[in-house]
Amino acid sequence: GSICGLCGNYDENDNNDFTLRSQELVNAPMDFGNDWKESSSCPAALEMTNPCYSNPYRQVWAQKQCGMITSQVFATCHSQVDPSEFYDACVQDTCACISGGDSECLCSSIATYAQACNDAGVCVAWRTPQICPLFCDYYNSLGECEWHYKPCGAPCMQTCRNPSGQCSSQILVLE
C-alpha cells in the first residue's frame, strides 16, 4: 500500500500492476502509461502501427531480405538464439525505412542478430559482396593489407582498449 505507479505496487502480484491513479485496473499498457504521465501537458502516447501496413509495397522485400536471419546462413545459431523476434524486428525496421538507406536499416537489423549470436558464442560470417558488404575488405587481398573484417572480431588484438594485446574476458567479441 506504500508504493504505486509505473513500478507497480510491490506486492509480488503481476496481475494488479496496471492500476490507474483512480485504482481502476486496466490491461492495456498504453492506457496505464498515459494515466501515469508526469504532466497533463504531455500528449498521450499512441499505439504504434506496424510500418508494413503503412508501406505495404515494402513488406515483401523486407520479408525476403530479413529471411536471412531464419535461413541456413544462421542455422548454427538458431538453437542458441531464437531468430523469430529478430526476424520480426528486422521486417518492421526495414518496412519503416522509407527515406532511402534500405541497406542501412536491413544490415543493422541483421547485424543485431549476428551480435546476439556472437554473445551466445556462435560466430556467423554472414556478410557477402551482395548482402551488406564491407567493401574495404573485399577490395583488399589477404596479402595486401593487414586490416580485414572478421565477423566475430579477435578479442586478443592490440587496440586502444587492449594496448597489451592480451586476452581478457572483459573484452567483448564484436561483429
Automatic annotation (TrEMBL):
<feature type="domain" description="VWFD">
    <location>
        <begin position="1"/>
        <end position="43"/>
    </location>
</feature>
<dbReference type="InterPro" id="IPR058753">
    <property type="entry name" value="TIL_OTOGL_Mucin"/>
</dbReference>
<protein>
    <recommendedName>
        <fullName>VWFD domain-containing protein</fullName>
    </recommendedName>
</protein>
<dbReference type="GO" id="GO:0005615">
    <property type="term" value="C:extracellular space"/>
</dbReference>
<keyword id="KW-0325">Glycoprotein</keyword>
<dbReference type="Pfam" id="PF25962">
    <property type="entry name" value="TIL_OTOGL_Mucin"/>
</dbReference>
<dbReference type="InterPro" id="IPR014853">
    <property type="entry name" value="VWF/SSPO/ZAN-like_Cys-rich_dom"/>
</dbReference>
<dbReference type="Pfam" id="PF08742">
    <property type="entry name" value="C8"/>
</dbReference>
<dbReference type="InterPro" id="IPR050780">
    <property type="entry name" value="Mucin_vWF_Thrombospondin_sf"/>
</dbReference>
<keyword id="KW-1015">Disulfide bond</keyword>
<dbReference type="InterPro" id="IPR001846">
    <property type="entry name" value="VWF_type-D"/>
</dbReference>
<dbReference type="GO" id="GO:0031012">
    <property type="term" value="C:extracellular matrix"/>
</dbReference>
